[in-house]
Amino acid sequence: xxxxxxxxxxxxxSGVLATELGKAxxxxxxxVHFITYQQPVRLxxxxxxxxxxxxxxxxxxxxxYPPYELALASTMVDAIIxxxxxxxxxxxxxxxxxxxxxxxQIVKSKNGRNIPVITTLHGTDITLVGKDKTYEPVVTFSIxxxxxxxxxxxxxxxxxxxxxxxTKPIEVITNFVDVARFAKKPIDAFKKxxxxxxxxxxxxxxxxxxxxxVNDVVKVFAEVNKHxxxxxxxxxxxxxxxxxxxxxRQLGVADDVRFVGKQDQMEDIMNVSDIFLLTSExxxxxxxxxxxxxxxxxxxxxxxxxxxxxxxxxxxxxMADVGDVDSMSKKAIAILKDDATLSKMKxxxxxxxxxxxxxxxxxxxxxxxxxxxxxxxx
Length: 378
Known about the structure:
This protein is of the alpha/beta class. Helix 6 (about 155-165) links the parallel strand 6 and strand 7 (about 170). The protein has a seven-stranded parallel sheet with strand order 3-2-1-4-5-6-7, with helices on both faces. Strands 10-9-8-11-12-13 form a six-stranded parallel sheet, with helices on both faces. The protein has helices spanning about 15-25, 70-85, 95-110, 125, 135-145, 155-165, 180, 190-195, 215-225, 240-250, 265-270, 285-295, 325-335, 340-355, 360-370; strands at about 1-5, 30-35, 50-55, 85-90, 115-120, 150, 170, 200-205, 230-235, 255-260, 275-280, 300, 315-320.
């Protein structure tokens, strides 16, 4: 099949999933065409079946805000017609679903083809941005006009129906992880650089937005560090990073916290970690937590959104209410004091991650695509 994928090319979960999905489909022989404003960060390998179409947005003095959605739709039309795509799979409702609807109508008017559109909902496109009155009518319309709608968790499916008048069924296809990539032997030399005296290693990775509550991560670590010699790695970047850095200095743990920015090789970092901290106010799924579990780290998280669908309290890690720093700290300290239980829970976290292995999930997307496959599809 010839599949067009529109996504955000950043480190966020939707972009990561879309890119990993495209790479896996290309490995299985499908032609995959990424359509976005820059090359996705996870698109870091050459594959003859992968194509990239950059969305170029012309700038004119007339526009205070260049019309990206129009440029995106035009690029979709160009890819569909000139590369004879079989379908469009758009990730994150805003603005990809509405742009896909526009592209679909243009293609239909040009050559009579009815290009199928699959829309995958990821999280804040529904729970935050999409609910804004500025966007809600367009979001609702473009989702309902999609041929197939999927969401990455049961929780997100429920939130979508609760907040939008969606008239079509939503199929849950969970996020996935490439277990083979993350389940590798830790690099001892790297671990010694991070924790030269054998300290325990805690990890957080996100885009440092307010919803991630990164200050809670620093507070949990500061309490843990009073009882257990440990280090904290903060991976990613965003508006809340300076606030978190300042808090680390205020709490006297700055020397034990490393803010390392955005990183491509997350598996090397996760492999040496003992605990992954995810203190978010909301997560539709928690892809970063799943990747950490595949690397053998236990997860201490909030119980918000779709996190209970992957993190089993007391088995793969622990959960607490949003903002309950005290409970998260106590659970982290207890598990880090008991090496036998820590080792057991790491194994259980890995086993849970295997249920979401990419090899189990990709066929579900292929099954959806096949519903629209033309006679000349590969």
